[in-house]
Amino acid sequence: MAADAQQHIARRRPPTLRAFRGVFGALRALLYVAICVIFLVPFAWMLFGGLRAEREIFRYLTPFSWRTFVPIEWTLDSYKTILGLNETGKAAGYNFGRNLLNTLIVSTAVVISSLFFNTMGAYFFARLPFPKKNWLMIYVLATFLIPFEVTIVPLYIVVRTLHLDNTMWALIVPWYASPFVIFSLMQFMRWTIPYDLDEAALMDGAGYWTILWKVIVPLSIPGLVTNALLEFQFIWNLFYWPLVAVGDRNIQVLQVVISSTLGQTQQYWGRTFAGATLATLPVVVIFLLLQRYYIQGVANTGVKG
Amino acid sequence: MFCKKQDAEGTMARQLEAAGQPGETSAIGRLLTWRQRRLIVAFLFVLPALINFAVFRYIPIVEAFRASLYKYSLLGGFGEFVGLAHYNRMLTDPVFWRSLQATLLFVLYKVPLQIVLSLGLAILLTRQTIGTGIVRSAILTPMVTSIIIVSIIWAMMYQSQNGLFQSVLVTLGLRKIPFLSDARYALPAISVMMIWKDIGFSFIIFVAGLKGIPEMYYEAAIVDGANRRQLFRHVTIPLLKPVLMFVIVTQTIFSFQVFVPVYQMTKGGPLDSTKVIVYYIYQQGFNFQDMGYASAISMVTLVLLLLISWGQMRFLRSDD
């Protein structure tokens, strides 16, 4: 609970240090630091833990101090091992580079195909005249009600019938269209792109296809970036589906391989930290760079959706 | 806005009609009118998505219902027809009921606390000062991190001998707590981790919701002599209600389907205390190879979730 009214006025001003004056100000600053510590300590432990020798992790664990986190001897050994670049790694059969590449291929393929097909679908719902279009919209939106994790077993049965199981296609094909992306792009096209533009193009004799790619898509870039970002994060972080859909370790994604080789045994903490960092860094860096679009996308699900 | 959209489409259709060339002579041109061809072209835009939803979202449910009536194994495929036997088995399966209980308990631990904390954070951070940007990024980082990575790292933090939490406890002079290997602590420990992970989602939505409240409501209330508590109780909460309900419904549905942390951290133990429903489905389907029974539990859970969201939405409407 806070001084809401004052906040609402203060928000308009540029950020200042004023909020940190006085006793309450000091408490607020302390709270800020505490929040950052709570949310970032596990990441710091992971990041630094991957950059120090295995025995150091345990030796400096207690007492709890800055030495628990910051390495004395910095080394890339854990990374070399899991990437299969040194003898230990080769002997253990690690090839995380390959799995990281798989994750990258799957995520990129899903983002590209999903942007392509969902943009077409969203354009249909936002602009094209069609009888009983509302019924089709209900057909799309009703999929929101299908719980995702609960239907993994049934989805596996279908993918197996199609003989897609244990291929990389199994990780890509089910996600080339998304009701969420269609809905959010449709909203974007309806609210932000003037109808005059495509009507003018129609009068000039342009077809739907030309209008979509020459008029609508260039004006939908912010919406497309937001959805690409959400989709990328969703696919990159997927675990349950690749776990059941793919058995072959050569085509498996990084997240599953880390869990099955390092996470279950909990023997080599340095390697686990290094692998976890490898799987986390790309998506966190992209998020930090494009945070504005990401927040916009999530906020829209609650406020407009 | 909706009507305006319909109008715009109507005009567009008429303009299209006017722009069409009646003198078409190709084979298709003779078979179909110009308008029919336009409709087919339009439909082709949405067809790939419709096929995807049919094959990967709707058919799985139909297949699951079918599989739930048969013996179905991973190796042998469809076997003998058993009717409702799987559903009967569920009624007398104590593990199924325990898993339902563990799932509900997890939702009860997680959702209310997450909502209170994220609302508090949202209110604290709506005021733009130096540092809010950093604090916000910190809160959102777990949210974009893979749930499996979070589970692996937290399993190491909770570890009963060398975990990070044990280090803090020992340094403070307290006894070690076996978080994940004690039936009393395992589910709460997973709940805490999941609140930490998911709080960013509700936080973003609350921040957006708070920004959407017009300032004049607060100003009017202040003129009437309202204090901070009253402002929160009578202005913020009522105006935030749609957003609040959205977060409650979606978080309940998401949390009900928790799987990865259990798979990675406890495998359902100790003493089935963390064996949530989706993990039980996984175990039946992929460990015990009993896809028929797994499908039956999936169907029941699906219906249960539909009932829960329907109930919550009714509750939201009747209260307005």
Structure, explained:
The complex is a heterodimer of chains A (305) and B (320). Chain A is mainly alpha-helical. Chain A folds into two domains: 4-75, no CATH class; 96-303, MetI-like fold (Orthogonal Bundle). Chain A is built from 17 helices and no strands. Chain A has helices spanning 4-10, 22-49, 54-59, 77-82, 87-92, 96-127, 133-141, 152-161, 169-172, 179-192, 195-203, 208-219, 221-236, 240-245, 254-263, 269-289, 291-303. Chain A starts with a helix and ends with a helix. With 320 residues, chain B is mainly alpha-helical. Chain B has a single domain (92-319), classed as MetI-like (MetI-like fold, Orthogonal Bundle), CATH 1.10.3720.10. Chain B has helices at residues 2-19, 27-31, 34-67, 85-91, 94-125, 132-144, 147-158, 164-171, 186-211, 215-223, 228-256, 260-265, 277-287, 291-319; strands at 70-73, 77-81. Chain B has a two-stranded antiparallel ribbon with strand order 1-2. In chain B, strand 1 (70-73) and strand 2 (77-81) form a beta hairpin. In chain B, helix 5 (94-125) packs antiparallel against helix 11, helix 11 packs antiparallel against helix 14 and helix 13 runs antiparallel to helix 14 (291-319). The chains are: A mainly alpha (305), B mainly alpha (320). At the A-B interface, helix 1, helix 2, helix 6, helix 7 and helix 8 of A face helix 1, helix 3, helix 5, helix 6 and helix 7 of B.
Beta percentage of chain B is under 5%
Q: CATH superfamily assignment of chain B? A: MetI-like
Low-confidence blocks of residues of chain A? 1-12
The number of E-state strands of chain A comes to 0
Figure out the total of helices of chain B.
14
Enter the CATH topology name of chain B.
Answer: MetI-like fold
Broad shape of chain A: globular
Number of helices of chain A: 17
Which sequence of strands runs across the widest sheet of chain B?
1-2
Features:
heterodimer, A: 305 residues, mainly alpha, MetI-like fold, 2 domains, 17 helices, 0% strand, B: 320 residues, 3% strand, globular, disordered N terminus
